[in-house]
Amino acid sequence: MLYNLLVPFAPEFGPLNLFRYLTFRTGGAVITALVFSFMLGPHVIAWLKSRQGEGQPIRSDGPPSHILRKKGTPTMGGLLILVVMIISTVLWADIANGYIWAVLLVAVGFGAIGSIDDYMKLARRHHRGISGRWKILLQIAIAAAATIWIASLTGPALADRLAVPFLKSVLIDLGWFFVPFAVFVIVGTSNAVNLTDGLDGLAIVPVMIAAGVFALIAYLAGNAVFANYLQINHVPGTGELAVLCGALIGAGLGFLWFNAPPAMVFMGDTGSLSMGGALGAIAVVTKHELVLAIVGGLFVLETVSVIVQVVSFKLTGKRVFRMAPLHHHFEQKGWAEPTIVIRFWIIASILALAGLATLKLR
Asked: What is the domain extent for residue 212?
């Protein structure tokens, strides 16, 4: 909004030219989101505590230590992330850019689904909220609408194409199958982040790392000169998504301040579903869906661990892991929670660097 309001006056007042630069506005989005998080965080947490009483229901079949250490902690802290991210994005991004609104549609829609799910868990005093079938169907509907919108904004040469990492000139024409593929990316990423969110600070830092990588990818893909140099697909207008990624990073940092062990608040499905959905949508816009699988490899590992556990138990009656998702397996092996969290952050950082390497290795 500041871009739209102030840049027209730049010829009369030179310093306003700063608002033309994506790097300046991305930095502004990070700082604004962080400041708003610090300002609103204590009030949001106090409000959630007053409304939730006993806090988030803790799974009785989860690690026993969680019942002792995490009981009474409020959930739905993702509301703080979502609200602050939206405010910061709208303030610093070009609000005439359709990609911004398409990604925000996914974030808000998935956040609403997560909020309903969190509320039902609190009302029932049980770890189950919306039925899995309804949750997935609602996510698919929102993701499909966003995908069709994104495709309409993208040029016909790229709208239904899939770019392949490491291969500079390969674009696979998916045709009508592009919509279900993109929906799978968005919904899959959302639920993968949701599965990862099981320990204090575990999900939010890998999300911020992935957002930082995609801020750079969006900036490069939106710049014809850089895109041509790196031989990646130039998608005009995607640079503005760097601002949204910056807002997500700032909101994530602010939330981590309150979510650091021992957590004062949990993000809940409100935060994990919305952030994962936003990352998936950004990957679809920038035509880096497969790179997201590398950058977000930690989320993939967590999801695969659940799939392997379920399939193995149904087929053989035996479990591969002591408990799924993967982070609970290591808890059951006796690893301290901070040890698991920090080591998973390291893995996420390594995978992010591997994802970035695909930009040059072509």
From this structure: 23-357
